Amino acid sequence: xxxxxxxxxxxxxxxxxxxxxxxxxxxxxxxxxxxxxxxxxxxxxxxxxxxxxxxxxxxxxxxxxxxxxxxxxxxxxxxxxxxxxxxxxxxxxxxxxxxxxxxxxxxxxxxxxxxxxxxxxxxxxxxxxxxxxxxxxxxxxxxxxxxxxxxxxxxxxxxxxxxxxxxxxxxxxxxxxxxxxxxxxxxxxxxxxxxxxxxxxxxxx
Length: 205
Hints:
37% helix, Collagenase (Catalytic Domain), alpha/beta, five-stranded mixed β-sheet
């Protein structure tokens, strides 16, 4: 019971302020999406995504490498670059994670655990946790957080999809769209709006 109360208190005092800053930043983001700032000599376009992978053990390092290389190829098509690293600390607790993804996770002690074990240097890094199971899903991203959960058999397209949620993109019905929540058909596409949302995401450096 005390863990549940602690999780709820964490949500109110630590998570809700992220939404306030997000709302305050909407006008500035709309300006960035127009592309007019590229004509300003003082403006530096942010083009890097920094990923930090957290693994249960060293045997999962090839999984992280495969996913990182694949998502780098996808993001390069948006004129974005990827820098990534594997955390030097193996988190054996990830083997026991079995909570299904969804809004309820925000009120679960696991949410605070993921936030507290993340690496935030650089400050906009996205922490990617490799877990054994996520129920029926292969990936999970909760808005206004700085982490992504990936099932150990997830693909780079799954990570790209979850990063799309961090860029405030919603699901699409088009089966070829990378934001389709189900199995996506080839060739994969993004709309012009989705590209601009990605290129103005808060986690870019």
